[in-house]
Amino acid sequence: MSDFTSNFWSIFVTGITIVGIFGCLLLLWMTARKKVASASDNTTGHVWDGDLREMNNPMPRWWMWMFVLTVIFSLGYLALYPGLGAYQGKAGWSQYGAYDKEVAEANTALEPLYARFASMPPEKMAGDPEAMAIGERLFLNNCAQCHGSDARGSKSFPNLTDKDWLHGGTPEKISETLHKGRIGMMPPMAAAVGTPEDVRNLAHYVLSLSGSPHDSLRASQGKSKFVACAACHGSDGKGMQAVGAPNLTDDIWLHGWGEAAITAMINNGKVNQMPAQAGTGKLTEAQLSVLTAYVWGLSNKPGATATR
Fold first, then answer.
1. Is 143 annotated among the ligand-binding residues?
2. Residue 200: which of 282, 122, 258, 142 has the closest Cα?
3. pLDDT digit string (tens) for 279-302?
4. Domain boundaries of the chain, sorted by first residue
5. Is 146 known to sit in a ligand binding site?
6. Is residue 214 part of an annotated ligand binding site?
7. Is the CB of residue 79 less than 8 Å from the CB of residue 251?
8. 24 is in an annotated binding site
9. From CA 113, how far away is CA 219, in angstroms rounded?
10. DSSP states of 14-71 as a string?
């Protein structure tokens, strides 16, 4: 890996580039000096189709000078812009700077569009068709990769259309999640629970909390082992939004359900992360505000129900 942290590759790329440019000039000079013997009629002696003869005329000088000018242009370009390894160029241009400039210009152009929503609370914004159309586009561009285009999520990615929220579903909590991101962690609990049989029994007790199919005998034996989980999930298994611990009684399973899935969770634990959306340069505060209202509105429509 030291090759990628040293300046070897920068020097290598610079050398190859310079050698290539001056190699082109050398090749042009060598070919210009080479004389091809010609016949008395100034042909090379090559004949095609009976009477088509190749003349031995030199290349036009304008073509040669155009070739030289392209070499001069390339040297000037490489002096001003990145192209020689780690050299940044005298002009100070970079792809990152160009991107940031374009984003800033786009955000400035969009400011009047978002100004109308600045004084709206999220609940009112969620009822504004224009705000929700903008929010939908923001969601599809930035959130749908994980939560799905319909916002119903998938395994390990929360459904945003139901009433089940790990950290709370108020506009304030949604905004906090969008701004700061979330890191959810359940540590491996097998050692605290006991034997593999104890883990299986606990898995069936967890299933029983939501009325999911389970072995009632194993569930009764695993109930006492739930004390190892109560610190986060609560003694009643209803979870704690303060730490992002899921409600185990609502039959909504973020990482899969059934004995195998729950046993794997107890044995191995889980780390899940939602990246922060603020401070990345992708979304402005105004856009995050509209996106907050859109996400809140997904689970606060008439008829919105909890789904597994």
1. yes
2. 258
3. 888 899 999 999 999 999 999 974
4. 1-30+58-99, 124-181+275-298, 185-274
5. yes
6. no
7. no
8. no
9. 56
10. HHHHHHHHHHHHHHHHHHHH------TTSEEEEEETTTEEEE-PPPPHHHHHHHHHHH
Q: What is the DSSP string of 76-138?
A: HHHHHSS-STT---TT---HHHHHHHHHHHHHHHHHHHHHTTTT--HHHHTT-HHHHHHHHHH
User: For the structural domain made of 185-274, what CATH number should be given?
Assistant: 1.10.760.10
156 contacts 246 by C-beta, under 8 angstroms: no
**4 pLDDT band (50/70/90 cuts)?**
low
CATH architecture entry for 124-181+275-298: Orthogonal Bundle (1.10)
Q: Which pair of tokens denotes residue 20?
A: 């290539």
- Rounded to an integer, what distance in angstroms lies between the CA atom of residue 284 and that of residue 118? 12
Residue with tokens 């000037």: 76
> With the CA atoms of 114, 116, 120 and 123 taken in that order, what torsion angle do they form, in degrees rounded to the nearest 10?
-70
Summarize pLDDT for 172-207 with one digit per residue, the tens: 999 999 999 999 999 999 999 999 999 999 999 999
Instruction: Name the pTM for this structure.
Output: 0.74
> How far is the first Cα of the chain from the last one, in angstroms, to the nearest whole number?
45
- Structure tokens of 270? 């889980």
